[in-house]
């Protein structure tokens, strides 16, 4: 079982930046593909970004809506995955969730992930 705890959400102005963190429990963090998802009010949860498992030479994946603005990274020594969000837009407003899967990356579907954090709110004002 993996427990995920997000932090770093808050209020930002359009064009600003925020960095989200997700701390994972356990000693096998490097075995997990890690992902970020978000859910805006009255919308379905959607994929944002993912990063492959392992210790180095990571592969990253992004939704088209955030490509070039967001960056996912991980520090396996700290059991933490990050989401650096730049050039924020009001439409980025959502609850952001961290997720993990104990297999290689296979896509953007929610069902691909086994464990989820409780979410952190990001609000971008215009």
Write a short abstract of this structure:
Helices cover 0% and strands 47% of the residues.
Description:
The chain has 126 residues and is mainly beta. It is 0% helix and 47% strand. The chain contains no helices and eleven strands. It has strands spanning 4-7, 10-13, 18-24, 33-39, 46-51, 60-62, 70-75, 80-85, 94-101, 115-116, 120-125. Strands 2, 4, 5, 6, 9, 10 and 11 form a seven-stranded mixed β-sheet that branches. A four-stranded antiparallel β-sheet has the order 1-3-8-7, with no helix packed on it. Strand 5 (46-51) and strand 6 form a beta hairpin. The termini are far apart. The mean pLDDT is 95.
Count the helices. How many? 0
Flag low-confidence runs.
none
- Our Rg estimate from Cα atoms comes to 13 Å
Number of separate strands: 11
Strand content: over 45%
What's the order of the H and E elements? EEEEEEEEEEE
Key phrases:
globular, four-stranded antiparallel beta sheet, mainly beta, seven-stranded mixed beta sheet, 47% strand, 126 residues
Task: Outline the secondary-structure elements.
Layout (H helix, E strand, L loop, with lengths): L3 E4 L2 E4 L4 E7 L8 E7 L6 E6 L8 E3 L7 E6 L4 E6 L8 E8 L13 E2 L3 E6 L1
Parallel strand pairs: 2-11
Antiparallel strand pairs: 1-3, 3-8, 4-5, 4-9, 5-6, 7-8, 9-10, 9-11
């Amino acid at each position: 079982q993996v427990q995920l705890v997000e932090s770093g959400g808050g209020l930002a102005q359009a064009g600003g930046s925020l960095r989200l963190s997700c701390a994972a429990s356990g000693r096998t963090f490097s075995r997990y593909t890690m992902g970020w998802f978000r859910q805006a009010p009255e919308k379905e949860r959607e994929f944002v970004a993912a990063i492959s498992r392992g210790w180095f030479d990571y592969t990253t994946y992004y939704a088209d809506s955030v490509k070039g603005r967001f960056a996912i990274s991980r520090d396996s020594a700290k059991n933490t995955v990050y989401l650096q969000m730049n050039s924020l837009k009001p439409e980025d407003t959502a609850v952001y969730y961290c997720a993990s899967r104990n297999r290689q990356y296979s896509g953007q579907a929610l069902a691909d992930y086994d464990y989820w954090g409780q979410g952190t709110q990001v609000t971008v004002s215009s």
